[in-house]
Amino acid sequence: MTTIVNLFCSAGMSTSLFAQKMQKEAEARGLDFDIKAYGLAEVDTEGPKADVILIGPQARYMVSEVAGKFPDTPVKDIPMQMYGLMQGDKGLDLALELLN
Question: What's the predicted TM-score (pTM) here?
Fold first, then answer.
């Protein structure tokens, strides 16, 4: 079964690059993951589909609100340094940690 990881940020631009790096890392590890980035405007439609929700650092103020909407889904902000360095491998590790 595919694990869905949705990333949300203000507009979804740089976060989509981070999601691509996470997706490549998941494929390299042989994991069946579907990792995509969206703008926060899409949280109500795409959030319910996710097994894990990660919020871009520029939108970390939304973490508690998003977590409140999806109480059964792990929600966490992506650490600024990890995001700034585009460390998709560490982003994937974060998602895996939240799943366990």
Answer: 0.95
